[in-house]
Structures are given as structure tokens and as C-alpha cells.
Amino acid sequence: MLKIEVLFPEICNLFGNMYNIKYLEKSVQDIEIIYTSLTDTPKFVDEKVDMIYMAPMTENSQELVIEKLKPYTDKIKELIEQNQLFLVIGNALEIFGKYIENEDGSRIEGLGITNLYAKRDMMHRYNSLFLGKIEDIKIVGFKSQFAMSYGDNSSNYLFDALKGPGINEESKFEGVRINNFMGTYVLGPILVLNPDFTKYFLKLMGIKDINLAYEEEAVSCYKIRLKEFENPETNYD
Q1: Domain 2-230 falls in which CATH fold?
Q2: What would the mean pLDDT of 158-181 be, rounded to a whole number?
Q3: Which of 76, 99, 198, 201 has the maximum number of C-beta atoms within 10 A of its C-beta?
Q4: Confidence at residue 199, expressed as pLDDT on a 0 to 100 scale
């Protein structure tokens, strides 16, 4: 049975990204979804899970999540070294960095698992389309965020940014990948919009015969969206 742990869904649930999990649930027959709340001990501490997932949250919630996960930092590092599969979306990525900097220069210390740090600009939300690539798979999606990340991810990025920015407006490297830890600002929901990437993702969990839910429709929509995103006249601002 495939076992997926969803961390803190009561607060980590923005932009419809819980549908990444719903899509996996519809696509895999033998699957168990574990919803871990802020008051629970994460299952990954004592049990083996196949995937750990965290969706975007409000900026205030980021501090709650950091405080909750801090006692398990060493365990998370150990799991990453063991190729545990993680998918963290949107500003959930910032939880795992060095720190988050507010406009006044004050800092919220992160878990320090990645070498990135984030800077907030709460008066300006950044929105854009995104076209990227991982191996031979093109990725389509969106961005909507109050912070961007900085630091050198040139050796451990997740996607090449073909159109739209990477972790910040000056970068062409989007997200972070450390072994099978994957973090990205790209919304979508990314698994719903990108069927080839979803299959790639499921193969990392050992699923071989993959028939995605609504696969024909998903592929058709992906091709239409990809053509639009690749159009030179498409505005990414």
C-alpha cells in the first residue's frame, strides 16, 4: 500500500493545492492518505511513509509550522539522506530554508535544511505564469507569492525556468531538489496540470503500471496549456 502523509492540512491548504493529493488518491488504487494536524506527532517520526506533502499557507502559519517541525529537523535530514520523497509547494519551501526575512529586517529562523533564505514584501504579491523543465518533461504552472528565495541553488534546483522566474526574478533555477526532497513555488495544482510529471513522481514511489485518473482529459488540457505557454506572445508578467 502506498502511504502519503499530508502535513497540517488545516492551515497548509492554499490555492487549491490539496488537489495534488486528491488526484493521487484517484489515480492509485492501493493508497492511504494520512492527514497530520498541528497537534499530532508526524507519522514520519516513527513510521515509514512513501511521501511527505505540504501545501502553501499564510505567512503567519509559517511560524507555527517551523516551531512544530523544529524538534524533528535531524529526523527530516536523515530521511532526505535516505531518499525519502517530499513534495512541498509554494511558501512551504521557505520553511526548510535558513530564514525568512521581514520588511523591517527581522528574521524568522527556518529549519536550515536548504541553503536558501526568503525575503518578504507583503505589500506586493508577485503573480506570473511559469514554464519549466525537468529532464525531458516540460512543466506548466503559476506563481502567487509575497516572498522570493535567494541563495545558490544552481547545483540542486528542481526545474529549469524556461519562461517566468526561478526562485527569484534574477534566477533561472526554480525550486530545490535534494535527493528526493522536492520544493517549488510552482502552483497548479502541479500534479493535476502536469500528467507526465505526475507519472514521473509516482515512479519514484515504485508505482510501475500507472493509469492516471481522467488521463486522456488531463493530457489534452496539458497540451493546450503548453502550446499557450510556449507562444512568444504570452505575457508572463
Answers
A1: Rossmann fold (3.40.50)
A2: 97
A3: 198
A4: 97
